[in-house]
Amino acid sequence: MAAAALTALLVFLLTAAASALEPGHGHVPPHLTGCLSNNMETFNCRWSVGSFQNLSEPGDLRLFYYNRTPLTAPQENWSECPQYSMERPNECFFDRNHTSIWTTYTIQLRSRDQDVLYDETPVEVSFIVKPDPPVELNWTLMNVSLTSAHFDIMLSWKPPRSADVETGWLTLLYEVQYRDVDSDEWKAMNLVKSPHRSVFGLQTNVNHEVRVRCKMLGGKLFGEFSDSVFVHISSKVS
């Protein structure tokens, strides 16, 4: 009996130890949650305290970075976050003077006394561009079919105000999506470079919702969607 009880206890302890190592169990250490740029001119990095709520005060966690360029000396010259955000906790902002394109940053999250390195990640600004939403989305009726069953519209919008597209610093691709408001299924159209595009064959007497988002040419990250516009054309147009 004693041997059986000891075996059962050992199995229980081993199972508990294995469970504690699985994701979602045990302590989650402080960690970087990502870096993003909305314009390829500045960027920010954010982190989480994980389950270490005792490290929630400003200065408990500190962000350091090292920017590796072809002219960088062999030794790693680490610098602290140029500007900790006052509005959003756990965020560091890199202004234009501290942002370099097509170089590699190494970002580290450290303890207050720098004795503990919690997390580290490489960052290239050109890979983390996530533009802001396009603005001033609008539509114009182009045509109604002879049967009045369908109609065509022209959509237009403006680039995000934060993106410098006029000088060519950023080239954006736009994706238009639309749906019947009674449906959960969005239809995505092919990407376009211009801030306008036509939509053909919309059904009359149906409420349509339209939105647009964008990403950098060659980039992978889409920004958030614009505010939607709603389109409704009656089958009888005066």
TrEMBL record:
Protein name: Growth hormone receptor b
Subcellular location: Membrane
Entry's Gene Ontology cellular component terms: external side of plasma membrane
Xref: Pfam families: EpoR_lig-bind
Limits of the Fibronectin type-III domain: 133-236
GO molecular function: cytokine receptor activity
Recorded topology in the membrane: Single-pass type I membrane protein
Signal peptide: 1-20
Superkingdom of the source species: Eukaryota
PROSITE patterns: FN3 (PS50853)
Keywords: Glycoprotein, Membrane, Receptor, Signal, Transmembrane, Transmembrane helix
